[in-house]
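Model: Ready when you are.
Researcher: Fold this.
Model:
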Amino acid sequence: MDDGSLLIDTDALIAIGNTGHWEKVFYEVKLTTTYVVERELERHVEEGRNAPQGSPDRYRRDGSQHALDGIDEGSISRVNTVPKPSGRDAGEESLRRQVAQDGEKVDAVFIMDRRGRESIRRTADSNDYDVKTPSPAFPLYIAYDNGLMSKHEFCEANEEIIENEGWTGYRAVEVMWTGIPVDCSEHVDPEHLP
């Protein structure tokens, strides 16, 4: 990746936040999100406060809390998006608006949702911005590439996201490895590889 911003969405933060290597990403890799995404994370923490262990609400809560820790004390910065979107998919929309307004300063956007990735690509393309939308787990690869985790740890964490998210279909698995130049075949179950 170049020296542009690396934007990350709520769901990608939560997915990485639920791996055993979240601190290596959230405290060492320079990521940027929006205040809208931060608010979504805060809402997930509040809504999942009393959720039982193993429940989807607890999964969102735990990953969100780790991401908020990375915002408060780590290497995740925030930008303000104007006008501020609201409603369903507000976090994704805030990233799309950030690309529309400041795309020349954005190198990549990490987002779980296929429609969100397509919307960001269309926005970037229509403005002649070279914004990539690699795997939502690409920040883990950046940590690996910078020597913060071993190849085995990286491969294991990517597989952990696939399992946690229930991404069993071929297309979903393929998205998780998009743009990642690492052969994980020795470390990952073949059904979790493209």
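Researcher: Now this one.
Model:
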Amino acid sequence: MRSINAHPFGGRAIFCLALLFLSGCAAPRPAVPPVERFDQAQIERALSSIRDAQQRVRAFFCTGTLLVRENDGESTLRILTLGTRKPFRLRVEVSHPWGGPLFHLLLRESTQGLISFSEKKYYTWKGGLEKVPRFFPGPIPVRHLWGLLQGRPVLYQGLRADSPTPGKIALRDEHGRVLQVLYLPGPDAPPVALEYPLMGLRVAFSRLETEAGIPHARQITVRHHPSGRRIRIRVTKMVFNGSIPDPVFALRLPPGFQTISLDADESTRH
């Protein structure tokens, strides 16, 4: 098995890691057929279906292509993602079309790792993605990334839900702030988009299908509105609930790589 690794502060690789939540092919806002506002029973039915799918995924393995548009150029890269829910682990590998690695990323419950092959550096930190804002457009919850890479939305827990306009379900915190907005053609249909309004982030799901009874998208387009950047992931193969050996999630650094703690860097700044 290959080791877990990733590419951060350098050239195209950082742009890609800013990847998982940034550039790529432009995609129109998903069209939601005109429907009525959902009543509370329909809202609960729709949310229960999404959460049920979340619970049914114990592990996943996915390969595909990552389309990235930078300035006037467009790059097509390879992406491999896999993870387990218990214990929580997520591994992402992005490489050149000819196979050379750009970066590997490993996310766990608390300790995270990112290996940059171009820089020959291994970055570590504790906590969520807010520690690496240069790579991601916002503090996206790690567990939400785990689901989005499967082509499925992941919902916050304990929020109040309502349907402010036809075809939409808003999830609000105790202060009434909208943290997520789901776009659905109907209460019994899979979501076609998910927004994080406070992050300026929109995820579109297309080419929807079902694998092992689990609905998911074979194409995921992510747009970060403040920067205007996008990425598009096209799934080639998706496998749910297969066996993934523990050594896959072991970190083996190539010789000569420097280890840098982002937590130590943060403490120095303060």
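Researcher: Key takeaway?
Model: DSSP finds four helices and 14 strands in the chain.
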